[in-house]
Specification:
It is found in: Membrane. With about 450 residues, the protein is mainly alpha-helical. Helices cover about 80% and strands about 0% of the residues.
């Protein structure tokens, strides 16, 4: 065990860090494009319901396990296990989550690398270097390897500084920057022709598709990915929350911020697509479907920025800087999962553990880049379609069926003494025991069949 465990120094610091983990490419890229291709506001409604009814209770399960355990995911889950068999199960769930977080980071870093190169591209153009700008905008092995490595190094540099001076400090700086860029871009896009058509497509629901199983599967998957569930990340972040804090409201804030930012990102991306269309850029395929996600972000939006002339360079820079920042506050949470385990389990010092694990993840990322066609989609499906829902479900089983109810209540009462009489405690334990596992299981099975 390391001598002194880190802890978030303030409530604001925790909220920024956990919201920073939650708010990422999933919100700013995944959510709007999924909404656009799944019936607009109908998807939004399904997402809101599922995020609050299933993802929030599951988030609370993970945060509570972590704060009670005051340790990495494996140790925290073991602390609530009562016999040898359960302790094995704890290892499988905790360690599985750590591997899942590492794998997510390995593909996330590739996408984040694209975002950083897209941020630098307008800078190169402004500086007058056409060669550099072409290299930055065209897919190539050298570009992908370099920027993926660069992004991992950035993540490692923050995580090696620990909880308060690394995660918390940088989340507190980056999250407000992200919000300001987001709002500035929305104001700009709303003033362009075509934006209102996009706004309508986003906000007027087509309810005929709301009970479509495929829509529900995508919405739940999106909610789980977005709240970083099932990967032990929220267990770790929970373990850095002080016992004086009210977990119930902290979890609610994080969920609210995450959902809010996804919603607001939709106000930017979807109108921006229609603005691009108004300028003659294709956004629908010949069959009338929306172009796929990466085409939208890496072709439609840049085409839009190009059409704006010089100001487009600044808008493009701001947009991709926003994406890169969102990716960074998320990736630090993914790296913290394996690092905290290595530090506590093998008594490594934080600096070497971080570099070592960063190097392993870089090797995995490079392998994916070198076998992009076969591995990229596979790793995404493996972690987000299987890993996250299954591990998230198991965390609910831990809290609902294995953890003694009195001890669970005692944990939540710290920082929230009145909880036993409130609505949360009337609903949540029962919910986490039955509703969450069944609903997550159902959605999981239908995603396998679908
Ligand atoms: N929630 C982030 C997003 O929306 C991604 C993320 C961060 C994540 N940490 C995670 C996903 C851990 C799964 C597991 O982009």
């Amino acid at each position: 065990m390391s001598a002194v465990r880190g802890e978030f120094s303030s409530r604001f610091g925790f909220i920024m860090a956990a919201a920073g983990s939650a708010v990422g490419l999933g919100n700013i890229w995944g959510f709007p494009t999924q909404t656009a291709s799944n019936g607009g506001a109908a998807f939004l409604v399904a997402y809101l319901v599922l995020a609050f009814c299933l993802a929030y209770p599951a988030l609370m399960a993970e945060l509570t396990i972590g704060r009670h355990g005051q340790a990495n995911a494996v140790t925290s889950l073991r602390k609530i296990s009562n016999d040898g068999w359960q302790k094995h199960f704890a290892f499988v769930v905790g360690f599985g989550g750590i591997i899942c977080a590492g794998l997510i980071l390995s593909f996330y870093a590739i996408v984040a690398g694209w975002m950083i190169s897209a941020t630098l591209e307008p800078v190169a153009t402004l500086a007058g270097s056409q060669t550099a700008s072409t290299w930055l905008s065209e897919q190539s092995l050298s570009r992908d390897l370099l920027f993926t490595a660069g992004f991992i190094i950035l993540t490692v540099a923050i995580i090696s500084k620990g909880v308060e001076n690394g995660i918390e400090k940088w989340s507190k700086r980056l999250m407000p920057a992200l919000l300001s860029i987001l709002f500035a871009l929305i104001i700009y896009v709303m003033m362009q022709d075509g934006a209102m058509t996009g706004l309508k497509a986003y906000l007027v629901p087509d309810f005929s598709s709301i009970l479509d199983p495929e829509l529900l599967v995508s919405a739940l998957g999106q909610a789980f990915f977005s709240l970083s569930l099932g990967t032990s990340v929220m267990i770790i972040y929970g373990s850095y929350i002080s016992k004086k804090e009210n977990l119930v409201s902290l979890g609610a804030y994080v969920t609210l911020i995450d959902v809010f930012i996804a919603f607001v990102a939709g106000l930017l991306i979807i109108p921006a697509m229609y603005v691009a269309q108004a300028q003659g850029v294709e956004i629908f395929s010949a069959t009338g479907e929306l172009l796929s996600e990466d085409t939208l972000v890496f072709q439609v939006l840049p085409a839009l920025f190009d059409g704006m002339g010089t100001i487009g360079l600044f808008v493009g820079f701001a947009f991709f800087a926003l994406m890169s920042i969102a990716a960074l506050t998320s990736s630090i949470s993914m790296l913290e999962a394996p690092v905290s385990y290595a530090v506590e389990r093998f008594s490594l010092n934080r600096l070497s553990a971080t570099w070592l694990i960063g190097a392993i993840i870089a090797v995995v990322s490079f392998t994916i880049i070198l076998n992009f066609g076969t591995l990229f989609g596979f790793v995404i499906a493996l972690t987000t379609k299987f890993g996250q829902p299954l591990l998230g479900l198991m965390c609910c089983l831990f809290v609902g069926w294995i953890w003694y109810r009195n001890s669970l209540l005692t944990e939540i009462q710290q920082g929230c003494p009145e909880v036993a009489n409130g609505i949360f405690w009337k609903i949540w334990p029962w919910y986490i025991k039955f509703i969450c596992p069944i609903a997550i299981g159902l959605v999981f099975v239908s995603s396998l069949l679908g």
